[in-house]
Structure formats: C-alpha cells, structure tokens
Design a protein that fits this description.
Elements lengths: L1 E6 L13 H4 L8 H9 L5 E6 L7 H6 L2 E5 L5 H13 L4 E4 L1 H5 L9 E4 L6 H10 L5 E3 L25 E3 L2 E2 L10 H5 L4 E2 L2 H13 L5 E4 L8 H18 L4 E6 L7 H10 L1 E9 L3 H6 L10 H11 L2 E8 L8 H12 L4 E5 L7 H8 L24 H15 L2 H14 L11 H17 L3 H14 L4 H19 L2
Helix pairs in contact: 8-9, 9-10, 13-15, 13-16, 16-18, 16-19, 17-18, 17-19, 18-19
Length: 490
C-alpha cells in the first residue's frame, strides 16, 4: 500500500514564525507531529511519502503515486483541506482526514471522503483493516482516551529535520482545567495521560541519535497537569542529560499555577527547559471568573510571572480580549500588564468560540454565534456578537498589537524581562546557524529596518550589563521582527 501523508500549509499567523525563519535558515517552525505519530501506527511494510506543504509544494505526481491520501488538520487549515480534497477527487484518490478540524465538524466536511474523529490509537487497527480490503467507511469515531503507552515513536525518517527550527515531542494529553473558551477537554479529556518516563526519554534519545541538537517543543496541553507524573518525567530527563551529555533545550505549555511549585520550576530548569507558554488571558478578575480560569485567581498574576522568570524560564503569554466582562479600558490594562511584567512574546487574541468549547455552546444558546471560527485568534475577527461594540474592539485590538510590537516599546519589554530573568540550567549549543542568525539580526534590525537606535541600545546594554543573556536578547529581536510584521498586517 502506498500512503501519502499531507500536512496543510499554515496561513501566516503569530506562531507560523514565517518572517523569523529566514534568519535561522529553516523552512518551518515545527514538524507535523500528528502525521509522524500516525505513520508509526500504520504497517511498516507499506510505502510512505510525507509532504509538509510548509516546506515544499504538493505536486500532482505525489497524489497520483498514492493509494490513499491522509491529511491531519486544525480548524485554521479548513480552506487548504478543501483545496486538497478537490485535487484528490480530480485524480480519483481517496482522502482520509483526521485531527481537530474533523472533530469540530458535525458532518463529513469539505469534500473529504473519509473522516476519523478522535485519537488515532483507538481506530488505527480498524482503519488499516478496511484499507487493506478497499472498503474504508465514511466515518470512524471514538470518544475513548487511550493510554499513551499505545502511542508509537514518531516516524522521523519521513521528514528532513533540517527543514525545521524546532522539533516536537509530546509527553501528555489532557488538562485538569476546563476554561470556557478552550476545547482541550473535549478533544483530549480532563485527566492528563502521560507517557512513561522511559517512553518519553526514548523519543528524545532517537532525536539525539539522528543528530538533533536544537530546541524541542513539548507540545502538551498542560505540562504540569499532573504534578507527580511531571516530576517523574523531569527527573528522568535530567538523568538522561547527565548520562548522554545531550544538549537539547525545551519549551512547553503549562498553567500559571506552576509558579507555586518551587520544585517543579527547579526540575524544569535542570532538565533544560528555557521557555513556557502560559495562558495568562487577562488582568481583569471579572473576565477570569467569567471564563472560569480560576487557577489564574489564586494569587497575584504579575507576581506569578516574575516567579517563573526568576526561576530561569521565559514566560510566553497568551492574552484574550472580548470577554463579556471586559470594560472599554481593557486594551490599556492589557498593555500595561504586558509591559510591566516583561512578557516579551505576548500573543493577544480576540476571543473565539471554538466548536467544541463550552463557550460555543453558551453563545449558541444565546443566539450570538455569527460564523465559523477561523482557528486563528489573531486574525482580527469575531465569530460571535460581543457585548462591547464590535468595531471598537477590532480597531483597538489592531492598535494594541501594533503598539506592543513597535520597536521601542518591544525592546523596552525585552529589557524588563532580562532584568527579571535568571540565566540558569544547561547552556544551549551554539551552531553556525546561530552565528548566521546573529549576523543577519545585526544587519536587518541594526541597519535596514526602523527601530535601529532602540535595537542598538538593547544590544549594547545587554553586552555591558548582562553579557550571558546576549543570545536570548538576539533571539528575541528576531522573534520581534516576525511579530511586528504580523501585527502590521492586521
């Protein structure tokens, strides 16, 4: 059997890093972990071809070669999947779709012939049997959440690692919290399921054997969702680093309550974690109560950010505007909080009602839904009727994003972060790509683009006061260039 695996092209978004990638000589931010994991569930004696449309074009020859085409997609890929379906139909090739996009749709959507709803570990055996018989059903669905011991190692042999800025691995699925706007509980459950420490470290060792020395994104819904299991995992990673001399560093996603667990912070830093994305959402206590983000109300949010930064981790923050409880001054409050806490990477988005979220159900019952979600909360669009004036929200959202990433403002925020942040844990490996990125940064941000004076003030000040942080500072200038370009296009 010949299987074509397709990762759809991701539109230009906050996280696509499209404008930062040329600095480091990479084609895409992250590899298609879902497809690579799915390939591990399929028979080893079949033939595979993986096309990540973020790194190369999908040509008609690829489709013609295949017996089946498999696509994994999120809501943001809806239009790309529709185009892929048309191309597959033109060549009479069956298309099988899976991933969050198909969990969100109620019927077989977008012209896709066969749909898998739920986690692949539960349905892969039935799907393979039907593919062998040539009688694939229109729909495969499971609501069970499988033990991650069933999850195979990703098929890294199907991609070129050098195409990507960061590798991706997963240690757990699910989150113990049930925020109203989030669809994670519907997709992956409220009880976090972890891979065993040996299983997780085995995946890291495979990447190390393949020569990967760069950053690794641990793409969990909430890395600290089960503290005991998280500690076991971190101790195993620390032991593995000591045993092998591994140079990888890590970033992940976690809830802000991690700030109250000093041991977790210490273990993460010792294991090589450098960054953590945290859903901070809003400085408005009323809005946090509205969306039931109650873990963010257990202490002072700004103090929690500083605690994490002082432990040695960069906090990347997710923020939302558009809650019913938001007042007209929410944009100024968000700006002041972000600047004061030094959250350099601040993804501010408009509230979106995702199809599997409780927010979607509530707004549907209130008759306030207006369109499908785009899957991109930085697209300057609402899919429901907000309480505040829609045009007021959209106009001020654009202004906030452009203000946050204006060079002078952005570099001041970097300096605030560097003053709080402690450089701790394993040192990152320095490569020729890193040196090339530094030289490109010096030229483009220091000579070509506006904000040159603020850029050189940051670089010179860092070299004088915090020379150990110059690598962090340069990386943040490159990331800031991407975010600035995205904000300008809103």
């Amino acid at each position: 059997m010949k299987i074509l695996l397709v990762e759809p092209r991701t539109p230009e978004t906050f996280w696509s890093l499209r404008y930062a990638l040329p600095f480091v000589g990479r084609k895409a931010a992250n590899p298609p972990l879902g497809l690579l994991t799915l390939a591990g569930l399929l028979p080893r004696d079949w033939s595979y071809r993986l096309v990540d449309q973020n790194t190369r074009e999908l040509v008609d020859e690829d489709i013609a070669w295949a017996d089946f085409v498999l696509v994994s997609a999120m809501v943001i890929h809806r239009e790309e999947v529709a185009r892929l379906a048309e191309r597959c139909h033109e060549q009479a090739r069956p298309l099988i779709g899976g991933g969050p996009l198909f969990h969100a749709e109620t019927d077989v959507p977008l012209g896709v012939d066969h749909v898998v709803v739920g986690e692949a570990e539960e349905v892969a055996a039935d799907l393979v049997a039907d593919m062998r018989r040539g009688r694939v059903r229109p729909r495969y669905e499971t609501t069970r959440f499988p033990d991650l011991a069933l999850t195979p190692q990703p098929r890294w042999d199907l991609v070129h690692l050098d195409d990507y800025a960061t590798m991706s691995v997963q240690s757990c699925r699910g989150c113990p919290f049930d925020c109203e706007f989030c669809d994670v509980v519907a997709l992956n459950g409220r009880k976090p399921r972890y891979k065993s420490p040996d299983q997780f470290v085995g995946e890291l060792e495979t990447l190390r054997d393949l020569g990967w020395r760069g950053p690794v994104f641990v793409v969990d819904d909430n890395f600290v969702g089960n503290r005991r299991r998280c500690r076991e995992l971190l101790r195993a990673v620390i032991d593995w680093r000591a045993r092998t001399g591994a140079r990888m560093t890590f970033l992940t996603e976690a809830s802000v309550d991690m700030a109250a667990d000093e041991e977790i912070l210490e273990l993460m830093v010792a294991a090589g974690f450098k960054k953590v994305f945290v859903g901070l959402e809003t400085p408005s206590a009323e809005s946090l109560r509205e969306c039931r983000k109650l873990q963010n109300l257990r202490g002072d949010l700004a103090d929690a950010v500083r605690t994490i930064q002082r432990a040695g981790l960069e906090v990347m923050g997710g923020f939302i505007v558009g809650f019913d409880a938001d007042e007209p001054d929410i944009f100024e409050r968000q700006f002041e909080f972000i600047q004061r806490t030094g959250v350099v990477t601040a993804m501010v988005g408009l509230l979106q009602a995702l199809p599997n979220s409780r927010l979607y159900q509530r707004l549907s019952g209130e008759g306030r839904l207006r369109s499908d979600s785009t899957g991109d909360n930085t697209s300057a669009a609402f899919n429901f009727e907000p309480r505040l004036d829609r045009e007021y929200l959209l106009e001020n959202y654009r202004r906030l994003m452009q203000r946050l990433y204006e060079p002078g403002v952005y570099y001041r925020r970097v300096r605030t972060f560097l003053a709080e942040h402690r450089v701790r844990g394993p040192r990152e490996a320095v490569t020729w790509r890193d040196i090339g990125a530094l030289l490109r940064s010096l030229w483009f941000m220091g000579v070509v683009h506006r904000g040159r004076r603020a850029y050189w003030r940051l670089i010179a000040g860092t070299l004088v006061r915090r020379p150990r942080q110059i690598g962090v500072a340069v990386t943040l200038t490159i990331m800031g260039h991407h975010y600035r370009m995205v904000a300008a296009g809103l």
